[in-house]
UniProtKB/TrEMBL annotation:
A Pfam family reported for this protein in Swiss-Prot or TrEMBL: AcetylCoA_hydro
GO MF terms held by the record: acetate CoA-transferase activity
GO BP terms, alphabetized: acetate metabolic process
Keywords: Transferase
Family assignment from sequence similarity: Belongs to the acetyl-CoA hydrolase/transferase family.
Species this chain originates from: Darwinula stevensoni
Name listed for the protein in its UniProt record: Acetyl-CoA hydrolase
Acetyl-CoA hydrolase/transferase N-terminal domain: residues covered: 175-337
Acetyl-CoA hydrolase/transferase C-terminal domain sequence ranges: 1-86
Length: 339
């Protein structure tokens, strides 16, 4: 197990399980479920690739139903039909790639010229603007001395370039109702929900109330507090859930196969989101009011929300004067917030 774990945690590592598709007596080694009491020494989150004599199954970033489909494709041909039937019994239509988006357009990157730090007068290297089709909205960061920065999140870029410009003074924020804000969400979008005690319940409820006018909305998040009404079976035509963590509010729906989850370690999720393999259309977040420089704080739950905000095309924020302002890489400028 340490070999697989070591590969999964290493930069550029590829954890691979290789095995023949059948036993010597012709029984499939690839099965839908383990027997009760079977020993498990490698967690599913550690395994990124499974190889048989019939091919390679790339499991990284896929939910349970998608992993089942990939593994069936490398099973012995004599067993695939039965495995597909068993998979359908377990997951139904969730085993179709049509239900969950795997990739979208590659992240567009626009290169900038070298820039000097306006405070120190030192050149900070090359800056990059991230864009998911809307060049008017670029990630805003607070770094030293309250400046914006733009970061290059392209895969393979190890030396991140940072461009600093002065923050705008006396920034005001335009407020709208939760219902008007979630009205910006369109069919077939992937929507990230801020987690933990920062779950924006008013936005979640407003979005769920649109269930009769929306379809194909994929909801993704880690642990969320409160109810998860979008996960109810009666709303399955409008919403399907692809979560990174199974919390109490969705556990029943996971057990009933109404909700899917992605086996992945918390430490891997931010880079997975930034890789472009899991594009986010809209992020629903919960923040503090902006300070005099226009910066809101993600407050009590930064975790993967930082990456989601960096990569989301649209950001819809619930502004709460009781949200604590936390220090560190937790700031988001009002220029990045759509509503």
């Amino acid at each position: 197990m340490d070999f697989i774990r070591g590969a999964s945690l290493s930069e550029g590592g590829k954890p691979i399980i290789a095995l023949p598709s059948t036993t010597k007596s012709g029984i499939s080694k690839l099965v839908p479920t383990l027997k009760v009491g079977a020993g498990v020494v490698t967690t599913r989150a550690h395994v990124h690739y499974v190889v048989t004599e019939y091919g390679i199954a790339d499991l990284y970033g896929k939910n349970i139903a998608q992993r089942a489909k990939a593994i069936i494709q490398i099973a012995h041909p004599n067993h695939r039909e039965e495995l597909e039937r068993q998979s359908y019994d377990l997951y139904g239509k969730c085993c179709s790639d049509d239900v969950y988006k795997i990739t979208k357009e590659a992240v567009k990157v626009e290169k900038a010229e070298p820039n000097a730090c306006p405070h120190h007068g030192q050149e900070m290297g090359y800056g990059y603007h991230h864009c998911m089709g809307d060049t008017s909205r670029k990630p805003a960061y607070m770094r030293n001395h309250r400046f914006f920065g733009t970061i290059d999140f392209r895969p393979g870029i190890n030396n991140i370039g940072l461009r600093l410009v002065r923050a705008t003074q006396n920034v005001t924020m335009q407020y709208v109702s939760a219902e008007e804000a979630v009205g910006l969400i369109k069919n077939n979008e992937r929507v990230f929900i801020h987690g933990g005690c920062a779950t924006p319940e008013r936005l979640v409820n407003a979005l769920t109330h649109r269930n009769k006018e929306l379809s194909g909305i994929e909801i993704t998040h880690m642990h969320t507090e409160g109810e998860a009404p979008y996960a109810r079976p009666e709303f399955s035509e409008a919403f399907h859930v692809n979560a990174f963590f199974i919390a109490k509010n969705i556990r029943q729906y996971v057990n009933e196969q109404h909700v899917q989850y992605i086996p992945m370690f918390l430490s891997e999720i931010p880079m997975f989101i930034r890789s472009g393999k899991f594009p986010i259309d809209t992020a629903l977040i919960h923040v503090s009011p902006p300070d005099q420089h226009g910066y809101c704080s993600l407050g009590v739950s930064v975790d993967i929300a930082r990456s989601a905000c960096d990569m989301a095309t649209k950001i819809i924020a619930l502004v709460n004067p009781r949200m604590p302002r936390t220090i560190g890489d937790s700031m988001i400028h009002v220029s990045r917030i759509t509503a």
